[in-house]
Every structure is written in C-alpha cells, then in structure tokens.
Amino acid sequence: MAVQVWIGEKPEHPNERRAIVALANGLDRLDGLYLILANFSVGGRNIDLVLIKQDAIFIVELKQCDGKIFGDVNGPWFVESANGERKRLNPGRKNPYNQVISYYYSLINFLNEHRTQFLSPQKATSVDFRTCKRLVVIAPTIQEGSQVETDWKVELKGLDELPAYLVTERSSEIDLSEEEMLAIPELLHCTRWNEVNSLLAGVLPRWDAIDSPFAEQAAAPAAAQVLYRYVDAQGRILLVSSERSTGPAARLRGRRARASDRLPSTRSPSTRYLAPRRRCSGSCESISGDLSKHALGATRNSPKGSRQGCSDPHF
Fold first, then answer.
1. What phi and psi values does residue 144 have, to the nearest 5 degrees?
2. Contacts of 286 (CB under 8 A, 6+ apart)
3. Number of helices (H) and strands (E), helices first, in the chain?
C-alpha cells in the first residue's frame, strides 16, 4: 500500500475527514510509502496533519474554506464569502501561519528527544529534523482572488495541489527507511485509521462511505452474516447480506442502508423481503414471528405506504 493513515483521535468534523480521504486517495496513486498522521497531540498541541515520506516530513495546518482567503504573517486571516461578507479564521486563536510554526517546534523537539528509539546510531547523528517543512493547506482549493502573504518559513497550498507538491519536495537531511517511518506514529501513540485504510485497499467501494456507520461495519471482520435493508426503485424492501454489500448491493437503485437498518434476519439468509421491524396495532403481533409474507403481500398488492390487515407503517 502506498499510503497509510494514522490518527490520534478520529477527526470530529466531516469536512476534515473528507479532506484526509481525498488526500489519501491522491497519494495512493504514487510510488513509495506515504504516512498521513492526523489529529494527534504532541508537546501539548493538537496537530492537524503530518505527512511522512522517505526523504521529507511535512507539518500541516489544514483549513476548510469556502471563499477567498486574506491574511499575512502576523495579523488575523479572513474568509470572504460569495456575497462579500468576511469572517475571521480561528477567532480568539493564532492565525494559521503561527499555528503551524508552533506545531513545528513541538514535533521536532519530540523527534529529537526520541531519535535514538527509531534511528540507527549513524542516522541519529545525521538526520536533521529542523528541515521538516511547514504548510498551511486550504481545502478544497485556494480560490482566485485570495491574498495571503507568508514568508520562507511557511508554504501556502490548496488541497488539490498538495499531492504534486509532496512528490517534488524533499530534504537532503532526512532519509528514512519504511521501518523508521512506521516507528514515528507508534511513538506518537497514533493508531491506524482502519476505515480509510480499508477504502484504500479496495475493501470498501465508495470514498464517501467514510462518513457513514456502514463503513465501520464493512471494514470490520464479519463475525456473522448481517442483512442490510434497501428500498429499490419500486418501493420494495430488499435484504442484502453483508457478504454482498460491498459489491452489487452498493449499486442498488435505492438509498444506502443506515446502521439503524441492520436487523437480524427472521428467516434464512435467502429471504428477500424484510419482516416488519416493530409491533403494530393490526394483525402483526411480534417482530420475532415469520411476518415476511405479510410485508411481501402488502408491498406487492397494496397501495404505497399501506399494509394488509395493519394500519401502522412498518418501516
């Protein structure tokens, strides 16, 4: 695998998760190993992203901005919306430039203190972590008309141009083996983000599945067969086993299953129509009974939204 994603904690905001997945997708097409370390703490600071490759380390402050960006080294940064309204980035905190500078010192101090734990004696004296690169990255892109002034210490990039930048940039003072690279997230107490790594490995079929509880179910080893409920274009309730949910089931012409849709089957794994999922005031007495015939008859023969012998909706 060309990319591995590690996290201290799972990013809270969907925009951050999507940005990390998009970056991993871009890097996965490249040769060599790339590590993405996201949302972890070091030296009392919570760092958005660190990207590690064989000959460079990049420290990143990631910002999601839907508008033009304005700012400089010392002053506040602003985002201007399409209607001209400006809002301050990081109100009450350092601007992105100064944030990534503080991340830089926290991380290189940690790496220098622990260098003998993951570098050979020869490399421990030659690798210079002061050459780690510092970036502010705007997701999804830096809009035309943005005006940000930085200096040589920090680069400003859009997320869309980041993979190409990572390929071309390197440091003559950093040369890490894969084993040494993989030791760094371990020392930082990061863990592999299995959902994203499963997406990269082709276990899951859709990149946007990372925002769905379905991704966690599909990425985990299946202890037993689980049936997922789908509604097709004709309004039928279909059951699809977890073994098929990453293939044709993912392309059914209805909505995707939700975690709340996951129910134990009331019949054999070959059942095609889902039994009512709760007690109703009609003839349905219990969800534990074999009620799939009732649901089947209502779906095929009754007007949409109705059930034979039952006035309550089942789904």
1. -60, 135
2. 279
3. 9, 13
Query: In the numeric block, which tokens belong to residue 301?
Result: 């023969």
Rounded CA-CA distance 103/43 in Å is 9
Model-level pTM?
A: 0.66
- pLDDT average, residue stretch 275-293: 38
| Residues contacting residue 282 through CB under 8 Å, at least 6 positions apart | 307, 309, 310, 311, 312
Contact assessment for residue 111 and residue 173, using Cβ atoms and an 8 Å cutoff: no
Tokens 């008859």, residue located:
297
d(CA 193, CA 281): 45
- Measure Cα distances from 35 to 40, 60, 119 in Å: 14, 13, 17
* pLDDT (tens digit per residue) in 90-133: 898 999 999 999 999 999 999 999 999 999 998 999 999 999 99
Residues 6+ apart with CB under 8 A from 78: 69, 70, 71, 86, 87, 88, 89
The amino acid that residue 105 corresponds to is Y
| Average pLDDT of span 45-68 | 96
Mean per-residue pLDDT for 56-85?
Answer: 95
Query: Would you give the distance in Å from CA 295 to the centre of its chain?
Result: 37
When pLDDT is cut at 50, 70 and 90, the band that residue 1 belongs to is low
Give the chain's radius of gyration (CA, Å): 25
Angle subtended at Cα 290 by Cα 306 and Cα 245, rounded to the nearest 5 degrees: 80
